[in-house]
Amino acid sequence: MTKTAKQIKQEGISDFKKHINLTQTIFLKSVGLEVLEGKRLGVHLWDVDTQERYIDCFCSAGSFNVGRRNTEIVNALDAAIDSWGMGDGMFPSGPKAALAEKLVEIAPEGLNNVMLCSGGGEANDSALKMARGVTGRKEVISFVKAYHGHTGFSLSAIGKPIYRDSFEPLIPGFTHEPPMNDLEAVKRIAGADTAAIILELVQGEAGIFVAEQKFLEGLRKICDERGIMLIFDEVQTGFGRTGKMFCCEHYGVTPDIMTTAKSLSGSVYPISAVIFNDRARKFMEANPDMIVSTFGGGDLACVVGLKAIEYLKKNNIPQHAAEMGDYIGGAILKLVEKHKGLVKEVRRKGLMIGLEYTHDMMGPLMSFFLGTNGVMAIFSANNPKVMRLMPPIVINKEEADRLIAALDNSMTSVKKSAKIIEAASKIPLVGNAIGVQELQVFLILIAKTIGKVIPKSGH
Ligand code: PMP
Asked: Is the CB of 159 under 6 A from ligand 1?
């Protein structure tokens, strides 16, 4: 007997819950986003059962810059399957060479060398190893709230203790002391044994904190003077997200090593790359077997990565992201004025947008109401007050207008619910507990009831 769409969804979610991630399933349900991903195309994804269509503003934290199942990229993969497989990590191959050449062509001058890996964490691990290897030094400086992945070196560089605590002792020699944009703190810490300074130019998971021009220029100077390797983690900011191919182009500051991943996948095939200068190359040449990866840069992945870059370049997508960022960002500022009291701050670089709400509860509530208005958006894991809006950067004006209307509608709904939260927070025990997950779920349930009497936007 063929299963109904409803059964497929129920089974999918229940098996996912049973075997993969119970807590995530409960969380998504609590914010009204109990979705089993079905069809996906461009900026949209559809639920298997309800056929509800969502604009994806999470994008696996910025992995879908070229849009989901971009036809040109899917066709390239399709054709590649006829000729290529994984390839052997030991041997040169056409797809690897072509991708490496393209990466060097689009990277800032001086970054002439490429190592291909599978994910962002692995790329950062490799970059940090190169820095230690080439300098012979031990210490690494990363930043408060920094996010670099969950593999060994990357996890050791994460600036949020909660991610590290269960696994201590991690790799020694890492400090996460300086806050982003605090050059004086870096100057105090960076010493003769510092191998690397690693940072995101826009801290994504932390809640969209943008690096300042003087800060980056200062970091470059410190690194040059003290022989430290400067590593830019462009895993999330890369491939057009911030309005330039790489975020560091906004600043005119070039790192020694740049890590990239996410959108190099063309939204269909995992791959990451470390792009580095000739100083780092010295270590790699002298130690060809020290930093390697069996699956890194498989041939199919390379075909896809190359096609993704060609697509971005041919269609001038980074420039498009800058324009759409201004368009959506400008509209959001108007909404902030209209719905006073809801949003404390808007932080943005291109289409990497963060809304900081005035209360912890606003993040989950906005996720919920945006869901009912056809937009998938998740608040930051590091800070429930901050919502990241990162639609595929190929988003067009009509889609942007729908996103803006959904934000407007959701803000209206949240303001109404906010009255309940305010009243609840005045009850002493409840007031203390607000922000605790169960209470958030309870309040969302109340908000859901209210949601039923608030009209959805047309989409
Ligand atoms: N660096 C940054 C800036 C990231 O945002 C992420 C993933 N969110 C990573 C590294 C880790 O990438 P991955 O999950 O592919 O290991």
From this structure: no
Q: Is the Cβ atom of 235 under 6 angstroms away from ligand 1?
A: yes
For residues 124-160, one letter each, b for 16 or more C-beta atoms within 10 angstroms of the residue's C-beta and e for the rest, the string is bbbbbbbbbbbbebebbbbbbbbbbbebbbbbbbbbb
Ligand 1 centre distance from Cα of residue 131 (Å): 19
Does the C-beta of 234 come closer than 6 Å to ligand 1?
A: no
- Residue whose structure tokens are 């063929």: 2
286 burial (CB, 10 Å; 0-12 / 13-18 / 19+) is exposed
CA trace torsion 359, 364, 370, 374 (10° rounding): 170
pLDDT single digits (tens) 333-364: 999 999 999 999 999 999 999 999 998 778 88
Query: From the CA of 420, how far away is ligand 1's center (Å)?
Result: 37
What pLDDT is recorded for position 445?
57
Lowest mean pLDDT among 187-191, 221-225, 378-382: 378-382
Answer whether the bond into residue 169 is a cis peptide, omega within 30°.
yes
> Cβ of 350: how many Cβ atoms within 10 Å?
26
Dump pLDDT digits (tens) for 129-184: 999 999 999 999 999 999 999 999 999 999 999 999 999 999 999 999 999 999 99
270 lines ligand 1 (CB under 6 A): no
Domains of the chain: 71-314 (3.40.640.10)
Query: Is 329 buried (19+), middle (13-18) or exposed (0-12) by CB count in 10 A?
Result: middle
Q: Is ligand 1 within 6 A of the CB of residue 357?
A: no
- Ligand 1 center–CA 427 separation, angstroms: 40
3-state secondary structure of 359: coil
What SS3 class is residue 196?
strand
pLDDT for the residue 457:
39
Q: Residues 113, 284: contact at Cβ < 8 Å?
A: yes
* Strand bridging mode 257-260 / 272-276: antiparallel
- Residue pair 229/194 in contact (Cβ under 8 Å)? The answer is no
Distance (angstroms) between ligand 1 centre and the Cα of 130 equals 18
**Which distant-in-sequence residues (6+ apart) come within 8 Å of 82 by Cβ?**
none
